[in-house]
Amino acid sequence: MRFFIGAVAALTASLPALAQKPATASQAFEHVQRTRDQARPLWKQGQEKGIQMLEEVLRFLDDPTVLDLAQGDFSLRTRRQNVYYDLAAAHAVAGRKQEAFGYLQRLAGEGSPGAYLPFVEKEPAFDGLRQEAGYRRALATLKTWGRVWASPALETPYRDNISAAEKIAGLSRFWAEVKFNFVYFDRVPDLDWDRLYLEYLSGVTQTASTKDYYRLLQELCARLKDGHTNVDPPKELADQLYRKPPLRTGLVEGKVLILEVLSQTLSEQGLQAGQEILSIDGIPVQQYAQQQVAPYASSSTPQDLELRTYTYGLLNGPAKQPVWLAIEDAKGDRLEKNLPREGYQAVRGLPRFEVKTLPGNVAHVALNDFSDHGQVKLFEAALESLARSAALILDLRRNGGGDSSVGYRILGHLTDRPFLTSRERMRNYVPTLRAQGLDLEWRTDPAEAFPPSGKTPYTKPVAVLISAATFSAAEDFCVAFDGMKRGKMIGEPTGGSTGQPLFFRLPGGGSARVCTKRDTYPDGREFVGVGVQPDILARPTVQDVRAGRDRVLEAALRYLQ
Fold first, then answer.
1. Strand 423-427 relative to strand 518-520: parallel, antiparallel, unpaired?
2. CA-closest candidate to residue 250, choices 540, 550, 554, 465
3. Would you say 513 and 502 are in contact if contact means Cβ atoms under 8 Å apart?
4. Are 332 and 561 in contact, with CB atoms under 8 Å apart?
């Protein structure tokens, strides 16, 4: 989406000076942003021309044609607030205090206070006005509206057992944020959110600790069945909840296997990939997983829930409490291990980015997260060597997501033409419409075209490897790749969850997030709640794990050959 507050990036499109009225909202949007960019260096130097250009933009936004276009385009509609901000700063630079205060007040009355407040407080142009009554009034208005959604009153610090009032307040905030913002109630048609709120009210007040309280909130959250709607306990509880021995586990053909041993210490004790876990702390492993892990896992699909239960959360527990495993190897020999959850040295981690050359001169690039644009730089640094390959495999099987634009920029190196990203849909809550009986309205933003990333794209055959651990921004990547028709996706259905979460703090030092955006294929096909489907299905077997065989990678090599 195109909504942002600070300085905008240079526009790639070039429009005429709009001697005629704009035909589309995009034309109007780009005209406003280009004019703001041109005016900024002028008003910063105190030149009147910059202010005149901004005032002309306001008149442009008031034109009936533009007003009509803005009704259907959120990005254009919110440009007025940006111009108010610019004019307040421009008049402040010019020494016109009252005009600056006037535009600040208009911003406070019409803008998005929680978003603009930090910019107003840090803007150098306002440094000479901060002690003035007009500035303080505008700032007070911004803070007043900002507190409606982000009051620090509920952001109380961690204690071993927060008060009953805090527990009720935290539950109430989570309930309210879900009620007003969650976009997937239709996926849980039998869930009565208000009834659950009443049921959990008595439960949270009876919890004996902050830890138990947050576990109960996680249990409630899991009822929403969404991987981008979560409750996160305070960081102070990490040692009580989330420590585990350095083993990667998973459910394969109905068996819970050790998939990877990440510490030499454990290897020396006889643990190895392919061994089956039979029980945990004396409880049959699948019974343990369904009782101790699954009820607290927020997930969008069966494959997502399976991953969170048997891979991410299975061995989690208190740092000081070892976990007792009963294990059986391929020969049927059994052993029992009491494994500490802490104290391991030289634990192997997952590299963020890795390049290998496979037989047939096939390049294999593991893209294990999209957390920042450093991944793009690593990929671009490898492009020269990748260009000499016969084909390319992009491995996203361990990519849990991050920033979708990171993946899009990498995809942009595989093509010389723009490609479509996901289509977005979100709730548009208007209180007056609700009073008139229209209690739910949706806003849909069409799929945007992302431009190519370079002048010399990679044109050889491409395959993308996916799994249930391919999640969020990595799934946005898959949707765009699918539409590009640049190659096949191989592996298993992805996790089936993406979107734009709304983050907020809870009493006792914890936090939560609620998914506020539905993403689909450009043509409206759903993948959230389903998963992006592979073109070639390939699943590892128990024998594969025990033999160290990568069946999915082998399938990709066959396809590329």
1. antiparallel
2. 540
3. yes
4. no
Question: Six-digit token pair at 493?
Answer: 């259905």
Q: Which long-range contacts (CB under 8 A, 24 or more apart) does 178-182 make?
A: 178/224, 178/229, 178/514, 180/429, 181/427, 181/502, 181/514, 181/516, 182/224, 182/226, 182/229, 182/514, 182/515, 182/516
Edge-to-edge strands of the sheet including 501-505? 230-232, 511-515, 501-505
What is the per-residue pLDDT for 11? Answer: 30
* CB contact at 8 A, 273 and 260: yes
Phi and psi, residue 487, nearest 5°:
165, -170
Q: What's the confidence (pLDDT) of residue 111?
A: 64
What are 502's strand-pairing partners?
Answer: 514
Question: Which segments of the chain have a pLDDT < 70?
Answer: 1-20, 111-114
Cα 126 to Cα 523: distance, rounded to the nearest angstrom: 47
Question: CA-to-CA distance for 230 and 426, rounded, in angstroms?
Answer: 18
Give the bridge partners for 511, in sequence order: 232, 505
Whole-angstrom distance, CA of residue 367 vs CA of residue 162: 41
Cβ of 473: how many Cβ atoms within 10 Å? 22
DSSP 8-state symbol, 12: S
- Determine contact, residues 36/54, Cβ cutoff 8 Å: yes
Task: Extract the tokens encoding 189.
Answer: 């048609």
**Cα–Cα distance measured from residue 187 to residue 498, given in angstroms and rounded to the nearest whole number:** 14
The Cα 483–Cα 256 span in angstroms is 36
The burial class, CB within 10 Å (0-12 / 13-18 / 19+), for 165 is exposed
**pLDDT (0 to 100) of residue 191:** 97
* CA 92 to chain CA mean position, Å: 38
Distance of CA 303 to the CA centre of its chain: 19
Closest CA to 520 of 511, 512, 529: 529
Nearest Cα residue to 395 out of 181, 174, 557: 557
- Tell which residue, 160, 278, 167, has the closest CA to residue 216: 167
Cα distances (angstroms) measured from residue 316 to each of 94, 245, 313, 348, 502: 60, 8, 5, 18, 26
3-state secondary structure of 327: strand
* pLDDT (0 to 100) of residue 57: 95
- Coil, helix or strand for 145? helix
Whether residue 404 contacts residue 476, with contact meaning beta carbons closer than 8 Å, is answered with yes
Q: Which residues of 60-83 are buried (b: 16+ CB within 10 A; e: fewer)?
A: bbeeeebeebbeebbbbbbbbbbb
Residue type for position 228: H
In 3D space, the residue among 82, 74, 2 whose CA is nearest the CA of residue 36 turns out to be 82
Whole-number pLDDT of residue 115 = 79
Residue 489 Cα distances to 42, 465, 530, angstroms:
51, 6, 16
3-state secondary structure string across 241-254: HCECCCEEEEEECC
> Going from the N-terminus, what domains does the chain have, and what CATH number goes with each?
25-150 (no CATH), 157-348 (2.30.42.10), 353-560 (3.90.226.10)
User: How far is the C-alpha of 531 from the C-alpha of 496, rounded, in Å?
Assistant: 4
